[in-house]
Every structure is written in C-alpha cells, then in structure tokens.
Automatic annotation (TrEMBL):
Organism domain of life: Bacteria
Transmembrane segments: none
Protein name: Putative GntR family transcriptional regulator
Record-annotated HTH gntR-type domain positions: 4-72
Recorded family membership: In the C-terminal section; belongs to the class-I pyridoxal-phosphate-dependent aminotransferase family.
Pfam families named among the record's database cross-references: Aminotran_1_2 (PF00155), GntR (PF00392)
Keyword flag Transcription regulation: yes
GO molecular function: DNA binding; DNA-binding transcription factor activity; pyridoxal phosphate binding
Keywords noted in UniProt: DNA-binding, Pyridoxal phosphate, Transcription, Transcription regulation
Length: 445
C-alpha cells in the first residue's frame, strides 16, 4: 500500500508542475533510472509513473529520445481545440471544399425535386439500404471507378464514416483485430475504439504499406479485417500500384481477412489502378461519400458489400439510422445521374492540382509531400520541433492544423503536420502557406 501511495505522490507532483507551467511543453524529463534514483523507488515504479502521466496526456515517450512534456493548449490530437486565442486566419485541420457556384445548382435541383411527380415519396421511410432505383444510380456511377456490381450489393449511408461504422457493426465483435497503416484515417480509430477493436499497425515501406509485415501479421495473429486507402491515402497521399493491390488482395484471401477499402478521396486520382474490390470482390467492402467531391454537408455515401454480407449490413443500418434521409438521397442521386457530380469531381481535381503547386512552392525548403491532386499534404517537422508545440505556435497566429498523433495507430507518432488545403480561398492560400513556412522556421528549438 505504501508503494502504491508513493507512486501516486510522484505522479501528482509531476502533474502539478506541468499544469502550473513549471515544466514547460517540450521539456525532456529524467530517464526512468534517474527518476527512480531521485525519488528512491524501483525503476518499475518510475516506468509506471511515466505510463500514468502519458495515459492522462501530460507526457509522451519517444524511442531513442526520452520522455517529454506535452503541450497543454490542446491544439494537437484527435479531439483538438478549435477555439483560437486570436482572430482565425485559416483552418487547415479540416477539408471543406468551397461551394463556389453550387448555391444556384442547389436551388435548381431542389426546384426540380419539388416539381417531380414523386415528391410525396420523400415523406415516407425508404428501405434501410435504400430504394433499388437509387442504388442502381450509384451502381452505374461506380462503373467509372472500375466496380461492376448489381444494385442490390450497394447500400446507402450517411457518408463514409457511417459506412465504416456500419461495416464494423456487421462484421466484427469486441476483441477482434483490424490491421491498418501506422498512419490512417482518424475516423477508423474512433470507430474501432467504440467497437472495442484492436488496431494492429502495418508499417510503411516506401510509398505504401509493408506487405511483408502485413503477411507476417496475418500469419501470426487472427486479423479480422484490413482497412486500407489505396487511392490518395489520407494523410500520406500515396496511390498504390496494381501489383501492390493484387498482392494485398492475395494476402487477405490467403488468410481469410475481410478488406475495408476506403475510396473517399479516390475521385481525385482518375488514373489510379482498379480498386481492391476488383481483385477480391467476395471479401471487400468498398465505401466512399460525396463529402469531398460535392459538399461536406450533404452526408451521403455508399458501401459496396460482398453478397454474403449484404443482409448483415442492412440489419446494421436498421438498428442505427434506418438508412439515409429521402430528401438528401433524392438530391444526391439527381446530381449523380445528371452529371453534376462528374463535373465537380473534375473541378476538384483541377483545384487540388493548383493548390498543391502553391504548397510545394511555399514549402519547398521543408520536406512537404503530397499526391499531385490531393486536397491535403504531409509536412514532417525539422528534428528540433515537436508537433504539439508547433500546432500551438500556429494557433496563436490564427492557423489551425492537424498533428500526426491524430492519425497514428502506434504509441509513438512522428512529429509532422497534415495540412488540409481545400478550405481557404485560393487567393489567400499562398499567404497562409508562407506564414506557416515562416512560423516553422522561427520557432526556437
């Protein structure tokens, strides 16, 4: 009991010093042995102290470097603070493509829907997976993505996040293991935590996942599913080549793993190889939405399910939202069928290419990387900078960014930022990016 009380006293002492500002963000704490010697406790107790401080978000350990005090302003991590201490200049933490010229299109589409002879159908509840007519429109659209399925394999969702949650509800149980890249979409992390699933990290090997490591993982652990973004990966921007996709599908087939293929940003690369769904249709759930191509507020998505799992997905939808809102579905399918979606996908690609050119120009002396037509980029920080403190510095100048720990499936995220480029007006973006470059270069080490 005395040992436990002593351990808690050390935790409280260090926590109080951090919260009072006596231990500033970025301060390197003593090694485990030094802490144990100073407080006359066992090394195991010192390790327990640091583990508790890390669990409450006050410190972070870095292999080969030590333990550091984390910034407490809250501008890093998956639930980052969004209220800035100064006037906001730009939000590069979230992609919300500008709705230039879309207001008139929305007004016209709503008039068209209002004048249709089936307006009363929007007041009635649709089937959980969507009406066959609406699913057929989506299935036809997916042909251009290399996905050829019958309409009854398509289920409609309230966006890609809802699709992920629906698939996990239908196919997993608490304690199951999902393999995902070491850096991956934060929505997967939130959903996996809610479903009490373990995320097994897949290391990176060049431009893509280390498939040897994935194969070893599948051979040694009971992997239930592999979550992947093969086209315009978020946040790293890679697009996997056909050979890599084929091997990934073979690994999943050999070890009887499901594949959750997130195609949310796939529309940005119209030269990409065929989706994984083409290589392993009997085990792949392909999901996407119209949030980044049409409008983030539309909340309309779709999931292509293997025939053997479609009923389970429908049950999952029935238990949650009972499918999509009829009015939103009518608007989305109208824009898909009349070519509006194709128009905006082309426009978003051109806009993204322009924004990436501006980003590479402004950040050329840093190690900025991005897909040439993606709506975001990845910015590793110089060795002397930390992501949490850098995000706070930028927040105090009016700019929100996202730190690498938002995306990580490991306990030791890299010090890097993801910059979402789609939200600011194009004319303001060069100034914003130059400001980021200047700020990073002037933060003291």
């Amino acid at each position: 009991m005395a040992g436990a009380a002593r351990y808690k006293q050390i935790v409280d002492q260090i926590a109080a010093a951090i919260r009072a500002g006596d231990l500033a963000a970025g301060t390197q704490l003593p090694t485990h042995r030094e802490l144990a010697r100073t407080h006359r406790v066992a090394v195991a107790t010192a390790t327990r102290v640091y583990a508790e401080l890390a669990a409450i978000g006050l410190v972070g350990g870095e292999p080969g470097r030590g333990t550091f005090v984390l910034d407490q302003h809250g501008y890093h991590g998956i639930d980052a603070e969004r209220t800035l201490p100064v006037t906001r200049i730009a939000d590069l933490s979230f992609n919300q493509p500008l709705a230039v010229d879309q207001t008139a299109q929305l007004r016209n589409a709503l008039r068209e829907i209002a004048g249709s002879g089936t307006l009363d159908s929007l007041l009635y509840q649709h089937p959980p997976a969507g009406r066959s007519h609406d699913r057929a429109i989506v299935a036809n659209y997916l042909l251009d993505r290399g996905i050829d399925v019958a309409p009854d394999q398509v289920v409609l969702t309230h966006g890609a996040q809802h699709g992920i949650d629906t698939v996990l509800t239908a196919t997993t149980r608490p304690g199951n293991i999902i393999a995902a890249d070491t850096l991956t979409y934060p929505g997967l992390l939130l959903a996996a935590n809610a479903h009490r699933l373990e995320i097994a990290p897949i290391p990176q090997a060049g431009v893509g996942p280390d498939l040897d490591a994935l194969e070893h993982l599948c051979r040694t652990r009971p992997i239930r599913a592999i979550y992947t973004m093969p086209t315009v990966h978020n946040p790293l921007g890679w697009t996997l080549n056909a050979d890599t996709r084929h091997r990934l599908a073979d690994i999943a087939t050999t070890h009887d793993c499901l594949i959750i293929e997130d195609g949310t940003y796939a529309f940005l690369d119209n030269t990409a190889p065929l989706p994984l769904q083409h290589y392993a249709p009997d085990r792949t759930f392909y999901l996407a939405s119209l949030s980044k191509s049409l409008a983030t507020g539309l909340r309309f998505g779709f999931t292509v399910a293997p025939t053997t799992h479609r009923r389970a997905l429908e049950t999952s939808l029935r238990a949650s939202t009972w499918g999509t809102t009829p009015l939103i579905t009518a608007l989305a399918t109208t824009w898909i069928a009349d070519g509006t979606l194709t128009h905006w996908e082309k426009a978003r690609r051109a806009d993204a290419r322009h924004r990436q050119h501006l980003a590479h120009t402004a950040l050329h002396t840093l190690h900025y990387t991005a897909h040439p037509t993606s709506q975001f980029g990845w910015l590793p920080l110089p060795p002397h900078l930390r992501a949490d403190t850098t995000a706070t510095h930028l927040a105090h100048t009016g700019i929100l960014v996202t730190t690498a720990d938002t995306f990580t499936t490991t306990t030791h995220p890299p010090h890097a930022l993801r910059l979402a480029l789609a939200s600011p007006p194009l004319t303001q973006l060069p100034t914003i990016l130059n400001h980021i470059h200047h700020t990073i270069n002037t933060i003291p080490g």
